[in-house]
Write a structure and sequence with these properties.
By secondary structure, this protein is mostly helical. The chain has 3 domains: 1-193, MFS general substrate transporter like domains (Growth Hormone, Chain: A, Up-down Bundle); 200-256; 267-482, Up-down Bundle (Growth Hormone, Chain: A), CATH 1.20.1250.20. 78% of the residues lie in helices and 0% in strands. Helix 1 (7-27) packs antiparallel against helix 8 (173-187) and helix 3 (43-71) packs antiparallel against helix 9.
Length: 482
């Protein structure tokens, strides 16, 4: 296939879109107290505003990749970016919490349609000798977005430009999104789709229903007093997800293209890595709670809150670099060590919240949040490497979608679970509520640490490499998010 002459410009455009997505994933957290004051949003609404984006993203990621294969990457990128822009506008103009939550879910859906096309674009348009450089530019978007998201959110909320307040954190996406759309129209090649298979809509419906049956009661149960129908909904999640698994196997037997290739579910190393990934990202939701504690309990400004999280984002970047060097050599052992580092950082934060009380400062948090970030970056990067080492090149795309979906589901679960714990304890004081939520997060990390014992270890003298690399081929690598 002839290489497109504007492919590097196309890469710049698509990486800009990923950067906007990453910033948006992080930007809203520091604006939550301002949203609560202006819209009168309830506690559950705050959880939905944060978790709704991740849920929409998770449910669309795998489908977005399949749609790109069928209808063309450029077309799906433009559709996803347009949906994201319209949803960002709706979020910025939302008159109430309900519309804001709906807009956040649609934002996530737009990102889920758009982001998978970027990796596909890199692997389709760049020669093997160009791909490492292209992947480096792509990877830069994640730490930059992780650091820039909270900072931009704090600055925009506090600056109150044109009296927009918190609305600016959503409206800022619009000009950058329009720039990405125009750039994609000019620089991204328009290749036809290659797959004529039908989409697995029944599988998507069953997966959505099963996840809804878990997340809706988890977020709304406390506010509504746990009526019987919410309990029944939680119980119904088990047969719904079991039915989804059976439907996926049946679709594969019929020669269809299920959302998750059943062969992946038989790989013990991959499944264990997903369990640890889910637990790790659930624990990362503790920063949703810490944000509320700093602003509602200690009267931090949005900008001061954002600055308190900068060491964690910097630690994630360093942890990623360390993991790239050591994780292939030590595998699950490195993951276990990184989990211990996460536990140490979170325990130190909890101790500071208790001992310093109202005197807790960003300076005091600098060391513990840096340690926490080092652990997060190291653990997630090592889990990506282990996951992709368990599959061959023909399953790399599917495995990448599964890994990224697990990350987003863990993020949503962490906000739902730890937010519920926090709000259920606010009567005892904001600090007590935050520490209780941190204790639950520590318990989740202990479970993750126990699960690392089942992760595969490389043989002595060997290294973890994706099977595609070992065969001289190049499969997709999943995106890494702070």
């Amino acid at each position: 296939m002839e290489r497109h002459p504007l492919r590097w410009w196309g890469l710049a455009v698509t990486v800009l879109a990923v950067l906007v997505d990453m910033v948006d994933n992080q930007i809203v957290t520091v604006a939550l107290p301002a949203i609560q004051r202006r819209l009168g949003a309830g506690e559950a609404a705050l959880q939905w505003i944060s978790a709704g984006y991740a849920l929409g993203f998770a449910l669309t990621l795998i489908t977005g990749g399949r749609l790109g294969d069928r209808y063309g990457r450029k077309r799906l990128f433009l559709v996803g970016m347009t949906v994201f822009i319209l949803a960002s506008t709706g979020a910025g103009l939302a008159p109430g919490a309900g519309i804001l939550i709906a807009a956040r879910v649609v934002q996530g859906i737009g990102s889920g349609l758009m982001v998978p096309q970027v990796l596909s674009f890199i692997h389709a348009e760049f020669a093997e000798d160009e791909r490492p450089k292209a992947m480096m530019y792509y990877s830069i978007a994640f730490p930059v977005g992780g650091i820039g998201g909270p900072l931009v959110g704090g600055l925009l909320t506090q600056a109150n430009l044109f009296d927009t307040g918190w609305r600016a954190v959503f409206l800022v996406n619009v000009p950058f999104g329009v720039l990405a759309v125009v750039g994609a129209l000019l620089a991204v090649p328009d290749r036809p789709g290659t797959s004529g298979r039908r989409l697995d809509l029944p599988g998507l419906a069953l997966l959505t229903a099963g996840l809804f049956a878990i997340f809706y009661p988890l977020v709304q149960g406390r506010e509504q007093g746990w009526p019987w129908w919410l309990v029944a909904l939680v119980i119904a999640a088990v047969p719904l997800l079991a039915l989804f698994a059976a439907q996926q196997r049946a679709a594969a037997r019929r020669g269809g293209e299920p959302l998750i290739a059943p062969g992946l579910l038989r790989r013990r190393g991959l499944l264990t890595a997903q369990a640890v990934t889910f637990c790790t990202n659930t624990a990362v939701g503790v920063f949703f709670v810490l944000t509320l504690h700093l602003q509602l309990g200690l009267a931090y400004s949005p900008l001061a809150t954002a600055l308190a999280f900068v060491p964690a984002a910097a630690g994630i970047v360093v942890g990623n670099v360390v993991a790239m060097r050591l994780a292939p050599r030590y595998g699950g052992t490195f993951t276990a060590a990184g989990t211990v580092v996460m536990l140490a950082g979170l325990a130190l934060i909890a101790v500071l919240v208790v001992r310093l009380g109202g005197g807790l400062s960003p300076t005091a948090l600098l060391g513990p949040t840096l340690v926490w970030g080092l652990g997060v970056g190291g653990v997630l990067n090592s889990l990506f490497a282990i996951s992709m080492s368990q599959v061959g090149p023909e399953q790399a795309g599917s495995a990448s979608g599964v890994v990224n979906t697990t990350v987003q589901l863990g993020t949503a679960a962490g906000i739902a679970l730890l937010g519920t714990v926090f709000f259920s304890r606010t009567g005892a004081g904001c600090a007590a509520a935050a520490v209780t939520a941190m204790a639950v997060a520590i318990g989740v990390l202990v479970l993750a640490l126990l699960l690392t014992a089942a992760l595969p270890r490389p043989r002595r003298g060997a290294r973890f490499e994706p099977r595609s690399t070992a065969r001289g081929e190049h499969g997709r690598r999943p995106s890494s998010r702070p």
